Amino acid sequence: MQRVDPFVPTTTLAERIRDGDVAPSDAVATYLDRISRDNDDLNAFITVTDESARRAAEQADRAVDDPEEALGPLHGVPIALKDLENPKAGVRNTLGCVPFADAVAERTATTVQRFEKAGAIVLGMTNVPELGHAAVTDNELLGPTATPFDGDRNAGGSSGGSAAAVAAGMTSAAIGSDAGGSVRIPASFCGIYGLKPSFGLVPLDTRPNAFEKSVHHDVKGPLTRTVADAAQVMDVLAGYDSTDPDSLPFEMDFLGAVNRSITDLRIGYSPDLGVFDVDPAVQSVVEDSLSALVDAGATVEEISLDHGLTADELKDAFLTTWAVHLRSITRNIEQHAEIDFSQRRDELSDSLIELLDIAADRGVDDLADTGIVRTRMFDAIQSVFEAYDLLVTPTTGTTAPDLRPTHDHWDWVARRLLTWPFNWTDHPAGTVPAGTDDESAPVGTQLVGPRFGDETVLAASAAFERERPWQYLYE
């Protein structure tokens, strides 16, 4: 076996495979070896599909040798799937939940089909909190997922397994999902790039309720070690799908956007979105990182966000919408799998039970009232883009928490994670590694674009990366 650099960018690996310099079977073997070596420590993968991955790699090898074979943009590239709404027929799909410990997917999600059509090879399913409900990754099936930087810290959630796998060089790229920060939070904690695209760009194919994800604008997005890698994944996954009622017929050049200049871009920097709690050490790292955008030619000015909302008002509204979002998910699963979660409470975590109880307690009027709070946040953010091309904030107000934190989880989410407002308002957002604090814990800087300004987010993210490369984090 030829050893492959596990941290080589996805775009570079794909090019080397197409050129015949790297065999897909060697790439797959390299990553499977690293999974075998490190997964017991990190708990990044909940299911490893090693046999099918090796078979697919052998087929990919033969395709490279066949001059008549058309190779996709990710031909032979190993990837990982979040074990939630990315089922692959015949593969275990647990949702991180005890009642589904042995469930096997009967269908393959549209996103997985697009990955495989592009030539990617699935290595397995990555760890998640139950039903993706939390901002840390832990469950009763596998346990908590740690960051590769510190085994005593949680990788974040809910795409924590995907983020940890990418950061640890256990996969070339991974897909996550983001309804409140579930791509950006673990990307920030694990020192990688994560993108929450605009709602409707990447298809969702949930059934029997096709509208399940619209409550909190849940989207699928890439987790990668470079911005260009994320753009390449987006070029593969995005595109109209008639089976998704929220799918949009937008065409974007994601990979082309990474080479665009941001000279003369006007950027507004909000240190706390007007109300969030941000640790001084995190704020210091983020503000130091802003020089990368200035060096790339942009203008950065500190701004204040005028929404007039208190932290308590935001928390109450968030808990209502998030609880309803999770109840929509559990109700959809109950209809499909013929299960009653109210009869399985002893198999669920306290934080999930708390959410389901909130959903049961709050009524239609409570949900309707959240729309007023959301609108005030939306108007405040929209007003930023009347004067600026981009909004920058800390991604989170803290670095990665303890492996099994004991703090009030929902208070921490509502007050310390600056990600979920942009699911409310449907603004695209990416997180770039800004640096590390005094304890060598990664810190993320969040770049938020105007509505459907995904290309601007990618352009600014790539410019940041060129000025302040972060690949040293993986050495």
TrEMBL record:
Pfam families: Amidase
UniProt signal peptide: none
MF term (GO), any: transferase activity
Domain called Amidase: residue spans: 26-458
Superkingdom: Archaea
UniProt keyword annotation of Isomerase present: no
Keyword field contains Transferase: yes
Gene3D superfamilies in the cross-refs: Amidase signature (AS) domain
Keyword terms of this UniProt record: Transferase
SUPFAM superfamilies linked: Amidase signature (AS) enzymes
Full protein name: Aspartyl-tRNA(Asn)/glutamyl-tRNA(Gln) amidotransferase subunit A
